[in-house]
Amino acid sequence: MNMVRSLLSIDWDYFIPLKRDWLNSYVENKRSIEAIWYKRYIKSVLKGEDLEKSVDTTSVLNDFWVKIKEHFDFIRNIKVFVSESHMLSYYIAKANKCEEVYSFDTHADLGYAGMSSVNFELNCANWLGKLLNEGKIKRAHIIYSPHTFERPEDFKDFNKLFSIQYYRDIDVLPEGIYTVAIHICRSGAWTPPWLDNKFEKFIKNLNLPYKVIKLYKRDWNSKKLSLSDQIFYLNFV
Questions:
Q1: Structural domain tally of the chain?
Q2: E strands within 145-222?
Q3: Range of the domain at 183
Q4: Domain membership flag for residue 210
Q5: What are residue 10's phi and psi, to 5 degrees?
């Protein structure tokens, strides 16, 4: 068994196809992760699309935990954390003295302004880059979602300096990855509220105790939107 201490970090958006025009930087607070979806929903309805029907989880979700357990060996009494933001992985990796991170995500989260990104304050878009730059971990393994818009060459500055491997299929990962902690984040600005029940089921299907840290409860009811509600959300920035 490979005894290198690893963090398994999973972003819920790994399972949800996103639209290219949703790519942006968002503040992950309760107001934004709810309002942004009402805005997207109303705009889609005006274009003749019902997002609640067209945006769903992909088949990758179906046997995910089965495949994970084929490649990752969980230590006894492994710590499992659930949060809103992927940024929490930075603290989990440090606290558990992880040498490697395996990140399942639509985004690399290395930082999106080249190496200067790691000089920004810690956020959901640069946590992995900061871990590498600060020498807190030795290697990063990014398992991209099948529907990502990113490419490894988008991060050439990071790739030259750090040990980063990119994958597009869980099956190519080695077996026996020594896993000391698991983090599952929802990333609500990129994952719709009407799939929150599936997110909760996904967590429970792991069949391990977990600790929830700062996960917002979203109130979603698209059928009760008044005209004033629609105007408010359409003007939401």
A1: 1
A2: 163-167, 177-185, 211-213
A3: 6-235
A4: yes
A5: -125, 120
